[in-house]
Design a protein that fits this description.
cytoplasm, repeat, 14 helices, PH-domain like, 22 strands, six-stranded antiparallel beta sheet, DM10 domain-containing protein, 5 domains, alpha+beta, about 750 residues
Length: about 750
């Protein structure tokens, strides 16, 4: 059957094969999955690997001895547990290390790395872990992944019987040396008949040990006395600004680059900013140095310092730049660049002057002297058009008209200076000719006109159209033109090789010179003034000048009289000071106001509510009261007498006497309400209508006339002016009990008399 080809019609099916499923390779015993050693193929056929040809030398152990020697009666075996379930989560732990070689390092030649080797008993696998070491700088954790590790080239694997303390174990090319194991590992190995060696000492890593020694140094640093918070609060926002330049032209493609250096006083840091110019071709990164402390010698570090990947720390820097190191004209080094300071701002100069007592030098230029450009040659004038138009056309390719001064033309439009001229005649018939020259202030042109002369054959008219007159002897391409400074009486001017003499001028010319005297020399102004005076054109000016002189003299006399009166008053004041007489008008007025205020205050009650509705003294009296003392008319300088210009008198009226009586009651009220004193409240008497005054003469107001005194003794009188307004206020309450009846009072008899006088 095996030799028949597998073609249609040549295949046969075994009718005894009824099951074609894949046979099971595992059995379940006591709840655990166990692999089967003997199993059949698909359809129940025997597997070729179970035949006798595949039986090895040790396959005899598969046979049960009981088949040969018979079964013996034994104890009941324990419940079955497979090997991986019996030793699940049980492993052997060994502490060890391996040495790792270090290249290109002057501080260490090798490194000791501690590891932990775990052997898992359930499946005979091994894994290696490295415990974490703080700040080691290397990757830590799992070194060898869990798995069966080959022992040699024959294919053998490491077994727990091969492990012990003090043994070198090679795992994937790395030799691990075990120095110790845990307690459970020792007990388990002892139960299996293997005694572990004594533990060894774990070697120290030289680099880690040296770093720990340095970390435990007994040397301390003295704390700085600088109060950083106070310094920040005092100097926050205050920055010293310097302008610097770095000359890199010694190198290829180098150039002169400008920088701005900022020194922050709050924390002594420095930042450097590059100043870019338009189209300089440099990258737009302006900050050359961020805000850091700038060391004076940045390369002053030990040879062992790894400057490639570590920045400088305060431990490596010996000295930093301070404000005193930044001075104009000095050179500072910014990380290898020597920068020259050439300017600073005003705040920086003030800070150095006030805080450090140093005066910064003046700023200097760093630009190379630029050779002057050669003047552009002017082509010769071809005679067409004016010289200004021709010169304008040589500046640009596009022809543009000459641009005049629009402002001067607008301000001085239609303003002309007129002069009278005569011709410096060569022929006798030209001596009678007269010319009028008009100089235009708007565009600087001169127009000459000749008036006609009857019966002379001279028709007159325009002699020269408006033209800018060129001075003789000036350059042809850069001519000098005549200006009003060149025109004065007697001046000789040359106009197209014809000489004229100025013999007269208009009055407006003189006015213009006086209004713009800074544009003309004094000699020319004096020349025109003499001419105008001789002609009689300055008559009104002379009259105004004489009037001004007379007013000035009168004012001087008045000032002299005022000064004399002031001297007399000062002498009189000195006399009064010697005899202690107060005669200062300002002080007298202040004293009068003070006495008047005191008198008015005495006439008024201290509270807003009058006691028992008493009507105060009325001041609406038409006849004022004058109060004052008669002073002695003789000044006695020999006697020390205390004089006073004010001695006011006060006469109590009946209403004031009654007011004083109730004033005592009011004082008792204040003692009760405002103080701790208690008084007995007495009910007030019933106040009916005021009785009529008995018949008799009506008292007149008190009048005091001014004494007749000489002028030498100054006497002051005080007049108390009455206030306006209604003083008859009737909303007065009782003092002790506000619930009592309120009594009202009308105007007093004295006030009624005043009202009657007012009516008359």
């Amino acid at each position: 059957m095996a030799g028949i080809p597998k073609l249609p019609g040549y295949s046969f099916t075994d009718p005894t094969k009824q099951k074609f499923h894949v046979s099971q390779t595992f059995n379940i015993r006591n709840g655990y999955r166990i692999a089967r050693n003997n199993f059949c193929g698909i359809g129940g056929t025997e597997i070729a690997s179970n035949s006798a040809r595949f039986v090895g030398a040790n396959d005899c152990i598969r046979f049960d001895p009981s088949l040969t020697y018979g079964r013996t009666k034994t104890d009941v075996p324990p419940l079955f547990k497979p090997h991986y379930a019996l030793y699940a989560n049980r492993n052997l732990s060994f502490d060890g290390f391996f040495k790792q070689g270090i290249l290109d390092s002057p501080n260490e030649f090798y490194r000791v790395r501690r590891v932990r080797i775990l052997y898992y008993l359930e499946d005979d696998t091994i894994s290696v872990f490295e415990p974490p070491l703080r700040n080691s700088g290397i990757n830590q954790g799992r070194i060898v992944k869990r798995g069966r590790v080959p022992k040699n080239e024959k294919g053998d694997h490491w077994h727990w019987k091969d492990l012990n303390v003090g043994l070198d174990i090679m795992l994937y090319g790395i030799v691990y040396h075990t120095v110790n194991c845990d307690k459970w590992t020792r007990e388990y190995m002892a139960s299996q008949g293997l005694i572990m060696n004594e533990p060894e000492e774990m070697p120290e890593d030289p680099y880690i040990f040296d770093r720990q020694i340095k970390a435990k140094s007994n040397f301390t640093k003295t704390k700085s006395n600088v109060d950083k918070l106070r310094k920040f609060l005092e100097y926050d926002g205050k920055v010293l600004r310097f302008k610097a330049v770095w000359d890199d032209r010694e190198n290829e493609y180098g150039e002169l680059m400008r920088f701005e250096i900022f020194y922050f006083l709050s924390d002594d840091t420095v930042s450097v900013k590059e100043i870019h110019r338009k189209n300089d071709g440099r990258d737009p990164y302006c900050m050359l140095l961020r805000k850091v402390k700038l060391p004076k010698r940045y390369n002053d570090t030990p040879p062992s310092y790894p400057a490639i990947y570590l920045e400088l720390t305060p431990a490596e820097v010996t000295e930093y730049y301070q404000p005193i190191n930044f001075q104009i004209g000095e050179t500072i080094f910014v990380l290898g660049r020597d920068m020259l300071l050439y300017d600073c701002d005003k705040f920086t100069r003030d800070y150095f002057q006030k805080a450090l007592g140093i005066t910064q030098k003046e700023a200097f230029s760093i630009e190379d002297p630029v050779p002057p450009k050669p003047p552009k040659p002017m082509p010769p004038h071809d005679g067409f058009g004016s010289l200004e138009d021709s010169f304008q056309n040589t500046k640009t390719f596009i022809i543009k008209p000459y641009r005049k001064n629009f402002t001067m033309s607008t301000v001085n439009a239609n303003k002309y200076l007129k002069y009278e001229m005569v011709m410096d005649a060569v022929h006798p018939e030209d001596t009678i000719r007269r010319f009028v020259m008009m100089y235009s202030l708007g565009d600087g042109t001169c127009k000459i006109r000749e008036p006609p002369i009857k019966n002379s054959g001279i028709m007159g008219g325009t002699y020269l159209r408006p033209t800018m007159l060129i001075k003789p002897g000036s350059e042809r391409l850069n001519p000098d033109y005549y200006t009003p400074v060149d025109f004065y009486i007697g001046a000789m001017i040359s106009i197209f090789k014809q000489r004229f003499i100025i013999v007269g001028a208009d009055l407006y010319v003189y006015r213009y010179m006086m209004a713009n005297n800074d544009k003309f020399p004094p000699e020319i102004i004096e020349n025109l003034r003499n001419y105008m005076f001789n002609k009689g054109y300055l008559k009104y000016d002379v009259d105004d000048k004489m009037k001004e002189i007379v007013e000035s003299e009168n004012k001087w006399d008045e000032d002299a009289d005022q000064e004399h009166l002031k001297t007399v008053e000062e002498e009189l004041k000195e006399c009064h000071d010697k005899i202690n007489v107060q005669s200062d008008p300002i002080a007298d007025k202040a004293m009068r106001d003070k006495i008047y205020a005191e008198y008015e205050d005495a006439m008024k009650h201290k509270t807003g509510v009058l006691p028992y509705g008493i009507k105060p003294y009325g001041h609406e009296c038409a006849n004022p009261v004058f109060i004052g003392d008669k002073k002695s008319s003789v000044c006695k300088p020999d006697e020390e007498v205390q004089f006073s210009s004010f001695t006011p008198k006060h006469v109590d009226t009946p209403e004031e006497i009654r007011a004083k009586f109730y004033g005592g009651v009011l004082k008792g009220h204040h003692d009760v309400c405002d103080g701790s004193k208690t008084i007995e409240c007495i009910p007030p008497p019933h106040l009916g209508p005021l009785p009529e005054r008995e018949g008799g003469p009506v008292p007149e107001p008190i009048m005091t006339t001014d004494p007749e005194l000489p002028a030498s003794c100054k006497t002051k009188t005080v007049r108390f002016v009455e206030d306006s307004g209604d003083r008859c206020k009737k909303d007065r309450h009782d003092l002790c009990n506000v619930n009592r009846d309120i009594s009202f009072a009308g105007c007093t008899d004295y006030q009624k008399e005043c009202i009657q006088l007012d009516k008359h």
